[in-house]
Amino acid sequence: MINLLLFPIIIPFLFAIVLLFFKERIVLQRVLAVVGLLAALAASLYLAHTVKQDGVQTITLGSWPAPFGITMVSDMFSALLVTTTIILTLLVVIYSFTSIGEAREHYFYYSAILFMITGVNGAFTTGDIFNMFVFFEVLLIASYVLIVLGGEKRQLRESIKYILINVVSSALFVITVAYLYSVVGTLNMADISVKIAEIGQPGIITVIAVLMLIVFGIKGSIFPLYFWLPGSYAAPPIPVLALFGALLTKVGVYAIMRTYTLFFVHHTDFTHGLLMVLAILTIIAGCIGALAYFDLKQIVIYNIVIAVGVILFGAAQMNESGLSGAVFYLIHDMLIKGALFFLIGIIIYVTGTSDLRKMGGLMKTHAPLGWFYLIAAFGLAGIPPLSGFIGKLLIVEGAFQADHIWGSIIILASSLVVLLSVIRIFIYAFWGEPQSLPATERKPYRQMMVPTIVLVVLTVLYGVGTEWLVPYMTDASNVLLQPSIYIDAVLKE
Amino acid sequence: MRTNDVILQTTTKVVFFIIFLFAIHIFFAGHYTPGGGFVGGLLTTGALVLLLLAFDLKTVQRALPFNFVIVIGIGLLLALGTAAGSIFFNVPFFTHAFDDFTLPLFGETSLHTAMLFDAGVYLVVVGSAMTIIQSIGGDA
């Protein structure tokens, strides 16, 4: 099956198209969305297994030879991200059954989700820089639909900002690709890497590296380009927010990691130094935001910003511990952010408000919710047996090896702030005197708990089963460390 | 009182078919000369928009009782199906096939599966452009 690596992209696409035909039949839509995602999950798991067994999988569309056709490349890094994406989307779809409301389901909600996953998986898998732009647009246009779907006043206002920012950054992406193409004369990522090595990264390539950092930094919300994120992400309903928070910024992070390990590796003093400084500033900005708010959504949204900083700081070290820590932390962060958004979604559903000061005493009435929230919060902060620990440990280790002592101290300090920010939610919402709750149906709350519990359990397993995951992560970081593996797989003679 | 636009409507009835045939021509010519699914689709939409200008939305919807969202779906399925057909022959996705055939009316003709893909593009372009125009122009 030489087309195996395309299945996680094609299957959601096919089901997204099929869903267009059944606009009014909600039950059928739900069934088809779940079936499609299960099929894609099976394909992506098998793909990860194949990549583990046989090394990097590549295919050049249309049977054209490698630099001339569009190459799709699945190394362990992208295979893991694709698998995580599909698991998360499956759970988001199940969570949506009870929380999104029928009105939205009537207007191509599941179709938009599946189109977005097509784009996300495509962006993770592509080996062609312009094709990556196209997949970015696929996921962005689907995300425009999801952010505005429902048409509340706040959604309309924030979607204008969101679209404006992303149109600008997409235009900048095209300009950057045009510059790059005029210098190296190719779009295939492996070929670009070879050509840049041949000409030894002159100044113009470093300029392009910074432009790429700006482009992907807007998508991935690094300092000082994260300004659009807190407002825009707070607007859509919780399942959409979970999907955005867990996936969209991570595509930008993936693109930065890919280009900064494959293309721009010859003058790392400047490019990776800049990346590191920006990552640290991102962490600090995120920490300030996470402490400043009494709003559940805002606190978790600023935690996204912190995590983006931590991952990029790890990636900027360019040594083995730093990069494998970044990979570990990236996957962990996708899972845990999904779980946290699910949990605060339930808290908001139960209390009817997202203001911390108006809630309290939930532990007496909703004990399971409280305990799962506590586990997720500890996982986010990186308490040892849980999922956030190993990634951050490796990142700090990598930073010490590279003599970036202050950076690692800031990372460690940021963990405390992260813990404080999420425990504050716990203390305000679960301790204290019970507030009078609005009447909620018990059944939807239980149904929303199911995917949440599955996701929290997954993050716990991710932390406990670290040893079992290490070979996969090592494969992933090896490809990032040694671009020659990637290049040889694509441009095989 | 509604103005009498008999000249506009009569001209439209003739011009519509000229534009539509030109669109079909552009669509089929795409492989060897400028043109293809995208322009062909836009020209077809242009012809339909002319109908919309000369008559009203209800008349056109009665004459062309398509749900254009379904047209988008069919177009996407056609494009994906053409590209995915290669999976069944275990060659890379998007590998096209072509050959020369002797057809009864056209004689020696080169047929290429890229044309089916283009037909998908054509339907998606027509479907999405018409969906945009109908939903902005309609009351609902």
Quick gist of this model?
The complex is a heterodimer of chains A (493) and B (140). Chain A has 493 residues and is mainly alpha-helical.
Structure in words:
The complex is a heterodimer of chains A (493) and B (140). In chain A, 78% of the residues lie in helices and 2% in strands. Chain A has 21 helices and 2 strands. Chain A has a two-stranded antiparallel sheet. The model of chain A has no long low-confidence stretch (mean pLDDT 91). Chain B is mostly helical. Chain B has 5 helices and 2 strands. Chain B has a two-stranded antiparallel ribbon.
User: Number of DSSP strands of chain B?
Assistant: 2
The shape of chain A is: globular
Q: What is the molecular shape of chain B?
A: globular
What's the mean pLDDT score of chain A?
Answer: 91
Tell me about the largest β-sheet of chain B. Answer: 2 strands, antiparallel
Number of helices of chain B: 5
Determine the structural class of chain A based on helices, strands and strand pairing.
mainly alpha
Specify Rg of chain A, calculated over alpha carbons: 21 Å
List the helices and strands and how they pair.
The complex is a heterodimer of chains A (493) and B (140).
Chain A: H1 7-19, H2 26-54, E1 57-60, E2 71-74, H3 76-99, H4 102-105, H5 109-125, H6 129-148, H7 153-184, H8 189-199, H9 203-220, H10 229-234, H11 238-262, H12 268-292, H13 296-316, H14 320-351, H15 362-365, H16 367-381, H17 388-401, H18 405-430, H19 442-464, H20 466-481, H21 483-490
Antiparallel strand pairs in A: 1-2
Chain B: H1 6-29, H2 37-54, H3 57-63, H4 68-84, E1 98-103, E2 107-112, H5 114-137
List key phrases describing it.
heterodimer; A: 493 residues; mainly alpha; two-stranded antiparallel sheet; 21 helices; 2 strands; 78% helix; 2% strand; B: 140 residues; two-stranded antiparallel ribbon; 5 helices; globular
